[in-house]
Amino acid sequence: MASATNRFSEEQFRSVCSELQQPGVRGAGWELLVESMGISVYRRKQVSTGHYEYKVFGVLKNCPPDLITDVYMDLNYRKDWDEFVKELCTRDCNGETVVYWEVQCPSPRFNRDYVFVQQHRELEFNGKKVHVILAESTSVPQFPEKSSALRVKQFKQKLALQSDGGHGSKVFMYYYDNLDCPVPDWIFKWVAKVSSQGAGGC
Which residues does the UniProt record annotate as the domain START (predicted)? Predict the structure, then answer.
């Protein structure tokens, strides 16, 4: 997904490359939530907001970084494998490609929706190619709030991927939103989809 403006700085992209090497979850309130399929999920409650932030990292075997990036960035394909997507589309807003994503939640909970900008770059870091994807919430009149969904107004996500030296990928992800959405559910669904693609040789 391309954007005509550069919302994120070079330093922001490179800082995620550093976190890929050292996720920094020892101490400082981070707790292990779950481990599965070679991936560890940690969370920490922010003192200032009372909401959880997450760090996800590990190695996905037989899943090269280019494949994972393609699966992650292909919004049309996400509609096929993520049954919780009710609506997912993009629109050009003031020179930026803005994503609208509505997540279908089971009754009696309201659906949740996101409006955000997402950018992908390939960088060289310590002599290795790294894919970095950054996303953060935004507000534009083209996507007004709906009475049928709760708007996630504070959303931030960072993803970094590099080769594990074989046929797999070293992965790091950071996630935060102000509604404490159940992050591990969709993360592991995405991991499972990527793993099945890799096993199939796609």
Answer: 29-193
Structure tokens at 166: 């074989």
Tokens of 49: 């907001």
**For residues 147-172, average pLDDT:** 95
Whole-prediction pTM: 0.86
Domain residue spans of the chain: 10-185
In three-state secondary structure terms, 146 is coil
Domain 10-185 homologous superfamily, CATH: START domain (3.30.530.20)
Beta carbons within 10 angstroms of residue 179's beta carbon:
15
How far, in Å, are 36, 38, 75 from residue 187 at the CA level?
Answer: 11, 13, 15
Contacts 24+ apart (CB under 8 A), 6-14: 6/119, 7/96, 7/117, 7/119, 7/136, 8/119, 8/134, 12/134, 13/121, 13/123, 13/132, 13/134, 14/123, 14/125
